[in-house]
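Side project, low priority. Logging it here so it doesn't get lost.
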Amino acid sequence: MSADTERALSRRFGSVLTAYVLLWTFLILNLAIVELMFLNPATPAHNTLTSIGRFLGLHLAFVMALQLLLIARLPFLDRRIGMDRLTTWHRWTGFTIFWLVVLHPTFVLLGYSRLDHISFLAEIPNLAEQMPVLLGMIAAGLVGIIAVSSVRLARRTLSYEAWHAVHLLVYVIVVLALIHQVYEGSAFKTNGFTQLYWWGLWAFAIGALITGRVVVPLVRNLRHQLRVAAVISESPDVVSVHVTGRDLEGLRARPGQFFLWRFPGHNRWWQVNPFSLSAAPDGRSLRLTAKGIGVTSAGLRHLPLGTRVFAEGPYGAFTTTRRVRENALLIAGGIGITPIRSLLEDETLTGDIVVLYRARTPADAVLLPELQNLARMRQARLHLLTGRTGEGNQPFSAGNLLGLVPDIAQRDVFVCGPSAMTTAVLRSLRQLGVPARQRHAETFRLAS
């Protein structure tokens, strides 16, 4: 590996490390403040049960603010950590919020029912007579709806568009929770410092959310004026959309990244899908390639030329900036070929390159002629792995991977494809001793 490459990789590692250090510092510092608030209340709790409820409520407020930061899609975190990992954290933080939402009011109701000498169920309408408490209960019910829609079984039955629409309730929840905390939370009103802390935390979280999800996308789209330039059918169920606009170099998009795409006038504003760039951005156009599965993707082939495009992004750390090795292995399955194809076109991907492309049949291998041309240009080795997966055909078993790429442990491995395939590849990579920092997977958890 050249000295320049080593220095570049060292800078990238330092950038990622900085992001993790800042995140952990923020988390530990804020948790310490929350614990101090609990230990120094303005008024003592009525009993042990309400004290536990207060403890859970304090942490619920902080975790909700943290959740807003995770969904703000801040470029600083996305470029260094990656949207997939941030979305995984968002998912687990969401279920943490769900259980805190269940436990916080439960202990509060148990405590007050003991204090009032009435049953738990009778205490519910008793406390609901107070408007801030009622708003908190409504927020808790909405959290339950989102949690149910996020369970894997329910998620499989919902389209991405429906799932996304349900999650818009999070903005209603934030408003209701903030009102509940301001008017009902005793810890919020302990002293001037606690009020300054909570207002500052919520302002920071909401400000980051508005900036990342509203201001930045609006400014970028007003600046770049994206429109559909061409729609090309790649196969009976796969279509490529070419998008042009002004000053596209200013987007700073990289091969391997994705955008959240909307097509106002053709689809409803809330219908949005994450599609990877299927070609390296050249400053003149962007290309997405999608398989017709959901409402939005299935309608792409009918997009009129000149249709306005609203794109959020670019997102994702599935790029060459994550490399730590000179040589690379690119693995794709099905429509997961799109970010892999753009990575193969990336001139910063140097060294020896091997591409493994999994498809049921050669006819199902989308963009195969383009891949073959790129492989010849880049002097890369391209292996098309076909056939039905079964006992006699396990292309991504540890043994088969080692047979195809004997030096796999000395390569960066980029993988994108169906969930089952990606899981099998990552399992084999672990068995083959490929270090975690050399394993890069684009799993689109944002859409799953």
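Brief comment: The longest strand covers residues 227-235.
Revisit when time allows.
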